[in-house]
Design brief:
The chain contains four helices and five strands; from the N terminus they run H-E-E-E-E-H-H-E-H. The chain has 167 residues and is α+β, with helices and mostly antiparallel strands. The protein has a single domain, classed as Butyryl-CoA Dehydrogenase, subunit A, domain 3. A five-stranded antiparallel sheet has the order 4-3-2-1-5. Strand 2 (34-36) and strand 3 form a beta hairpin.
């Protein structure tokens, strides 16, 4: 049981780390001489511009920012609630509250990545000329990590739902 508990804790911490990296790092959309994330646009890896009201799809990017931050916060809260429930729950009870919060984190990261996936073309086409970006590019590793974090938080939420406190 101790090995299972260590695996669950490590899996949850990994999920939180993936969410932090996906939220913070500048690699949601990358090209030869530019990179774009939910916070800024960088050209030549040195000239970075913060995404603000001048950005054409600013409200869309705000939605992505907000849901990624919320998913990261919920994942951390779920971890602390799990630790509290680990010592407070009676034997045989399930970690339902932890599961619900982790699944809400899963939902938030899915919403953020889905919005970005759906609106990516509009976001980059409208802002390409403004930021002097070359055409083309591809999804970066932060975007991929967001989808991996979605899967990890979903699996973690299901594990907590199934898990019972045993001796």
């Amino acid at each position: 049981m101790l090995v299972l508990l260590a695996f669950i804790i490590a899996f949850h911490i990994t999920s939180a780390a993936l969410l932090f990296i996906a939220t913070i790092d500048n690699a949601w959309w990358v090209g030869d001489e530019f990179s774009v994330d939910v916070w800024r646009v960088c050209t030549n890896t040195t000239n970075c511009t913060v995404i603000n009201e001048s950005f054409q799809e600013y409200s869309t990017m705000q939605a992505v920012q907000a849901t990624m931050i919320l998913s990261t916060i919920l994942c951390c809260v779920a971890f602390f609630i799990f630790l509290l429930q680990l010592f407070r729950l009676k034997q045989g009870e399930r970690f339902v509250l932890t599961s619900i919060i982790q699944l809400m984190s899963c939902l938030c990261v899915m919403i953020a990545a889905s919005i970005y996936t759906d609106r990516r073309q509009d976001i980059h086409e409208k802002n390409r000329e403004f930021y002097n970006l070359k055409e083309g590019g591809s999804y970066g590793y932060s975007y991929i990590l967001a989808w991996v974090a979605f899967a990890c938080t979903f699996i973690s939420g299901l594990m907590y739902l199934i898990l019972r406190k045993r001796k």
